[in-house]
Amino acid sequence: MVGAALATSQSALADYGYNLQVPASKVAHDVFQLHNFIMLVCLGIFVVVFGAMFYSLLKHRKSVGHKAAHFHENTTVEVIWTVIPFVILMGMAYPAAKVVIDMKDTSNPDMTIKVTGYQWKWGYDYLNDGISFYSNLSTPREQIIGTAAKGEHYLLEVDEPVVVPVGKRVRLLITANDVLHSWWVPALGAKQDAIPGFIRDSWFKADKIGTYRGQCVELCGKDHGFMPIVVEVVSEEDYKAWVAKKKGTAVVAAADNTKTFDTAELVERGEKVYQANCAACHQANGLGLPGTFPPISGSKVATGPIADHINLVLNGKPGTAMAAFAGQLSDADIAAVVTYQRNAWDNKMGDAAQPAAIASARGGAAEAAAPAAQ
Amino acid sequence: MSDAAHAHDEHGHHAHPTGIMRWLTTTNHKDIGSLYLFFALIMLFVAGSMALLIRAELFQPGLQLTNPDFFNQLTTMHGLIMIFGVIMPAFSGFANWQVPLMLGAPDMAFPRMNNWAFWVLPVAAFFLMVSFWLPGGAVAGGWTMYPPLFIQGGISYDLTILAVHIMGLSSIMGSINIVTTILNMRAPGLTLMKMPLFCWTWLITAYLLIATMPVLAGAVTMLLTDRNFGTHFFNAAGGGDPVMFQHIFWFFAHPEVYILILPAFGIVSQVIPTFARKPLFGYASMVYATASIAILSFIVWAHHMFTVGMPVTAQLFFMFSTMLIAVPTGVKVFNWVATMWKGSMTFETPMLFAIAFVCLFTIGGFSGLVLAIAPVDIQLHDTYYVVAHFHYVLVSGALFAIFAGLYYWLPKWTGHMYNETLGKWHFWLSVIGMNIVFFPMHFLGLAGMPRRIPDYALQFTEFNQIATVGAFIFGFSQLILLVVVLKTIKGGEKATTQVWEGAEGLEWTVPSPAPYHTFETAPVLK
Fold first, then answer.
1. Mean pLDDT calculated for residue range B7-13
2. The whole model's pTM is what?
3. Does the active-site annotation cover B381?
4. Out of A66, A145, A214, whose CB is closest to B63?
5. Which of A315, B131, B376, B485 could form a disulfide with B138 if both were Cys (CB 3.0 to 4.6 A apart)?
6. Alpha-carbon span A312 to A338, nearest angstrom
7. A280 Cα to chain B: minimum distance (Å)
8. CATH architecture under which domain B19-402 falls
9. pLDDT tens, A143-196?
């Protein structure tokens, strides 16, 4: 039965679903070939060894009257079946080593993207083009809890995909902000753990225009299963157009940091920021998860002095899952989310934080970071 | 599993405690062996229930039965309990029962330490289990306990560290006992190279445990001080390194995976010759292969970490050293097949489980070889392919060997033959169920499904549904095992001294059930 199942997997070698994903880069292609080669060798050995065993199970049984022989060692045979596997392994090691060396060669990139893992989203900084953004799961909550029909790319869709030009060597500098994550896009053959405090690199060169999807593959806490990766491989011209568009949005966003908003505007904007950044832990209703993530509704911070509230959001709380958002959100977004938290649910504080207050808190935060975080 | 009444007939002249005190204070290797085995049996159902809850959640995409945090608690606790609460105690149970009987020794070398080694285990299990009811729930950071995630958790993480310490202590005490017993208490004339292979595999396993358990203790102690006393062993912001934990952990945990399989090799090497009615082929090469696997296990650990970003030379070294393990493992498989070759085989339940072990463990070995190839591993690391791989070696490997050993020695321990029909039902449902659960997981991993996720993309649905159906078949068929064990203890056809026609060794020279005290004078070897 198992043999038959193995055979099925072999006959369907190239089918999506029974083998590695259809490769879209040279490294992924090499890995695909290497895996097929090793599987075929294993299958051959399996058939020989277990062919012998099942022959023996049929013929050398007491019920057919077979009398037991009494041999119990044979040095020649034992040496042979030690040496043959060794030779086979050397035949596998050589092509494998070539792929390892190729995978580890991250030199001469055409462009470099810094990838940062957060609980639970990815941040991307295009070091050559000066673009930065965060990439969150875009599957609606209703699909996950089953009150809405699931879309085609359920759990494998994001608000802001990584966009790269086709045929360019892309070097990834991968790190993390809080705990371990791992960045993986199967079809591109790139997987690298994201380690807080350390930068590791990887690379890929996509062969074909298309959309490639992957996921975080290192357990990173509650929403580990909900931080996908989407890479859009586009033509050179489309890439240039995308870069221009992203730079335009960045200018608009920067302008917001010097504006003064009224409370209603801040609350409206803050709710969106809250859903994208805070609701995973503190929940949409602000009640948190008892014992794991504290509530914001009715909390001392959200109903206390506004400066402490801003400091906590900016600097996080070391030793807990509460991240420092100073590097993740703009002044306008932090002002909005703080205002939202102070006016939503049971928190009817009625006050508001303006982007300018966040900017000045950032200035002071440098020296005051440690005490403020307590 | 000798019964209390019997013990009293034999030893009316001692003032034996009765009831619970008999089991709490016992220093008898057979009692302690039974305690270990009962503990493992209970924990099998505890951790197995968690597995069924995991599989039920994964039956379809979306969140139905659990939330992501509770799901992570289930996967973590399932792993920790199956490893430290089922497989390891079960092997210790076999060692306690069988090592003195096989060596012609009256008991283990340190009977009182033997009692302690067992009785700290339920305490550790309590610490692990109670955390489900503490604020924040049970530990959810994976059985591998990687920081910084492990630093974030609540009180249950500290309790888990404490439990790991206690289980390590238990293993070290048990191992010292086994090493001392084997090296010093063999019957006159029973040289090391004449010793049953089960004793050899446990001797080597015990050395692995003594060498690596302190390493694990060190790693979790560093986690404890990072969590509570402001050290920064694994915190880059304080000059530490989260990857260092992985190096230390896997320096323990790779030998640990052989700790979980070497005694299984031993059991299978006792069972196959008995039912093939032919001596074990290549005894000496089996011993050398076991020792080689143990030695190699210390220089392959970083193959669990091919995706952390090691230098190319390190990747190559760990890839080559890992591939080398296939050589001694292959020798073992060839030897088992050669033992069956030209034998006169019968297929009682122990033999069926042993044959399934050889065949299915080899599938796990092949997927291990695939994973040893660093570039392929980088694609498959932390996917369901790895889950499939280690369940093939731990379920159809370690657990099936435990079943084989249980059916094989149960008549000697209880004095009754088990019900062969029920045994065969248990075997066939287990072997079919097990393949339905775990074979599709290879495809899931290849197609890109990460492990440890409570919800998945739609293209993974069919294989997950098949796996869940298999899991329920496999899980519920273990109730047959429970029935068989309880029925055999209560009664059944009387077992002879020899029990199995082809059985050889000192344990088959004592009556069935084995008396409370055996070999009070050393046996004379023919």
1. 47
2. 0.90
3. no
4. A145
5. B131
6. 10
7. 11
8. Up-down Bundle (1.20)
9. 998 899 999 999 999 999 999 999 999 999 999 999 999 999 999 999 999 999
Question: Domain of A9: which CATH number?
Answer: 1.10.287
Mean pLDDT lowest among A1-15, A103-117, A184-198? A1-15
Q: Could you tell me the pLDDT band of residue A364, with boundaries at 50, 70 and 90?
A: low
Name chain B contacts of A295, Cβ cutoff 8 Å: none
- Residue A221 · residue A322 · CB < 8 Å: no
Identify the active-site residue in B165, B254, B391, B412: B254
Query: Which residues of A, range 164-183, sit inside 8 Å of B by Cβ?
Result: 174, 178-180, 182
pLDDT at A301 over 90: no
Of A84, A104, A124, which marks where a domain is finished? Answer: A104
Residue in B closest to A100 by C-alpha: B375
Q: Is residue A305 scored above 50 in pLDDT?
A: yes
Using an 8 Å Cβ cutoff, are B133 and B227 in contact?
no
Name residues whose C-beta falls within 8 Å of residue B310's C-beta, 6 or more positions apart in sequence: B302, B318
Partner residue opposite A221 with nearest CB, options B149, B320, B439: B149
* Same domain, yes or no: A119 and A156: yes
Q: Nearest CA to A137 among A113, A149, A125, A119?
A: A119
> How far apart (Å, rounded) are the C-alpha atoms in residues B482 and B40?
12
Q: Note which residues in 443-472 of chain B have CB less than 8 A from chain A.
A: 443, 446-448, 450-459
Range with the lowest mean pLDDT among A137-141, B165-169, B251-255? A137-141
Stretch A234-263: mean pLDDT:
88
Contact status of B283 with chain A (Cβ, < 8 Å): yes
Confidence of residue A325 (pLDDT cuts 50, 70, 90): confident
Residues of chain A above pLDDT 90, percent: 57
Cα-Cα end-to-end distance for chain A: 61
Are A235 and A353 members of one domain? Answer: no
- Please judge whether B279 and A72 are an interchain contact, meaning their C-beta atoms are less than 8 angstroms apart: yes
Do both A169 and A250 map to the same domain? yes
Q: Which of residues 16-45 of A touch B (CB under 8 A)?
A: 16-21, 27-28, 30-31, 34-35, 38-39, 42, 45
Check residues B37 and A350 and name the one with the higher pLDDT. Answer: B37
Q: Which of these, B254, B321, B261, B317, lies nearest to B290 by C-alpha position?
A: B261
Domain end (from A201, A233, A254): A254
**ipTM, two decimals:** 0.90
Same domain, A310 and A261: yes
Same domain, A237 and A117: yes
Confidence of residue A322 (pLDDT cuts 50, 70, 90): confident
Phi-psi map region of A116: left, alpha, beta (phi>0 left; psi -120 to 50 alpha)? beta
Residue B366: both structure tokens together: 């092949």
Domain count, chain A: 3
Domain that holds residue A100: 2-104
Looking at chain A from residue 74 to 103, which residues have their Cβ under 8 Å from any Cβ of chain B? 74, 77-78, 81-82, 85-86, 89, 92-93, 96-97, 99-101, 103
Is the minimum CB–CB distance between B282 and chain A shorter than 8 Å?
yes
User: Is A43 found in the same domain as A97?
Assistant: yes
Domains of chain B by residue range: 19-402
Biggest alpha carbon distance in chain A? 96
- On whether the CB atoms of residues A168 and A231 are closer than 8 A, the answer is no
Whole-number average pLDDT of chain A: 87
Q: Does A13 touch chain B (CB under 8 A)?
A: no
For residues A141 and A205, state if they share a domain. Answer: yes
Rounded to the nearest integer, the mean pLDDT of chain B is 94
Two tokens, residue B453:
């996720």
3-state secondary structure B397-434: HHHHHHHHHHHHHHHHHHCECCCHHHHHHHHHHHHHHH
Q: Average of pLDDT values for B139-143?
A: 93
pLDDT tens for each residue of B257-303: 999 999 999 999 999 999 999 999 999 999 999 999 999 999 999 99
Q: Is B329 a catalytic residue?
A: yes
Look up B254 and say whether it is catalytic: yes
pLDDT beyond 90 at A116: yes
Annotated catalytic residue B321: no
| Residue A338 shares a structural domain with residue A292 | yes
